[in-house]
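[Meeting: bench + compute handoff]

Bench side (C.D.) handed over the final construct sequence. Compute side (W.E.) agreed to return the predicted structure before the next meeting so the bench team could plan truncations. Sequence as handed over:
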Amino acid sequence: MSQTPKYTKTKEFFKHNRSAGGTPTHANQYHRVPMIFLINQNNLREKGTSTSENSTQSEEDQLKTEKYNKIYRDHLIQTYQSLKFVKELRPVDLQQLRAKRVTIPRRKGYEYKKTVIFDLDETLVHCCEDSSIEPTIILPIHFITGEVIEAPICVRPYALECLKQVSKHYEVIVFTASHQSYADAVLDYLDSEREIIHHRFYRQHCVFMDGIYIKDLRIFANRKIKDMIIVDNFAHSFAYQLDNGIPIISWVDYEHDKELQGLMHYLKKLVQVDDIRETNKKVFSLRTFVEEFNRETCKNHFVFNKEDLI
């Protein structure tokens, strides 16, 4: 019982922690690739919409299908809003960008490897706000004020396996819009020896444009843009390098989630390509995403509330 107020306080903190990096209110679906890495690559129209299919499903399977369809639908709307925002985003403030530039050392054995950049919250982990969900771990978060808050953290299925596997072939960076005190506590839990996550970057490394924290890959002075890929549940987080981005489905508590399992397979294919952007933009086509969404929504009569798409 004594933990309840701490959880509540943590929830309020993380709302603030993510507020400037959340979905823009003024900016998907049925894209050519389901968002994003389900092993069974069925599109929205084919998943759980057939009466005969539903009649043969167990009640448990139907609930799973309905839950995933909602997660998928929410992600499409979120991505649509993000990319509408990106279309209206001003060019980056070059003075701000120059001030953020960093030169990061290469670890031995990684001198010629490409770089994968992971977001943290809702990509690898989730700070559990629902007291009915059993967290993976409760971590103490130490603030510079001296205050300590206990944060219940849920780790996404396959997160550790993905980080370990990807780190064999890529340099791995975690780049979060969260505060460093929180992020370090979570990352120290995931990788206490700093063996699979090679570098960490935080809110202070983001550029702040039009009320949003954006992870501009140009801050990495000694890395080539063509050799970097960023995995983030918010497409606007990589607004200035859309072709480098993988807009993974947000994760909160879906226990059957397999997005990171599929991500491992996709990243393995990118290892040998000369320019990550050329392959990635063919898969996701984020630059034409809004137009495709509008066209397919009309053609296939997908039902979305108008206010969701504003």
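W.E. noted at the follow-up: The first helix runs from residue 4 to 19. C.D. will use this when planning the next construct.
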